[in-house]
Amino acid sequence: MIDRPFSSKSDNRNSRRPSRPKTGPILAKSPAVTPENQEADDLLYGRRVVLTAMEEERQLNRIWVVNRLRYDPRYHTLLEKAKANGTVIDEVDDLRLDQITNKANHQGIAAQMSPYDYIELADLIEKAKGRSRHPVIVIAEGITDPHNLGAIIRTAEAMGCQGVVIPQRRAAGVTSTVMKVAAGSLEYLPVARVVNLNRALEELKAAGFWLYGTAAKTGKSLHTINLTGAIGLVIGSEGEGLSLLTQKSCDELVSIPLAGKTPSLNASVAAGMALYEVYRQRWQNSPD
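The chain above was modelled as a monomer; its predicted structure follows.
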């Protein structure tokens, strides 16, 4: 076994790499989208999402807001502050907002965001270690559905993770759709976008993270694994699961036992269940 700094060892972590299963992934296929098209989607809408973006001082190019919210005490000060920082504030009616959002549930306010400011992986690792003695980072491989990515980010932040890593190619980036689904959690959870995911996995391992891949039915049952210490939870794509190269980069492959007839789980559901088990073990061992 490679003795890594910053990583507690347990009985299940041995030097022998587990055999790689050749069966199908545990993740259900979701409708594919084109990441390039998603990158052009830079519109935020809905009171909670836009309000959170203003509170966290995200860089917004323009805000469209109806009169009833423009001078609402909850929004007025933040709108004025955004205006002072260079955001254009347009007071419009509901019909105009319907046109801008393509009749989405805008709730009277929408904003055009600047491109998401990704964090460098090295900085993410440093921040993660600074925030927790036993940090958890989620690595999402090839998640093309922005709704799935947003749900994973939302769950990761809610459970207490320190960051998310996504690949630059063949995967959704952080767009307004992702931000909408994430429901404000991106203001608190940093995301690193990397050119080479497997190189990033090696960097995480060198920094002391133990990598668990949610890959196949024949992986070790999740609840039997000691998930303490600094870990990276690797989530596979909606249709194909983890690639063979990524599986080889993981220290352990884990599976979520299923009792029903449905053979697989949606990527974001699998991530949520795995993250709950990670933190259940931590809460059990350290209730404080």
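Residues 163 and 186 are 10 Å apart (CA to CA).
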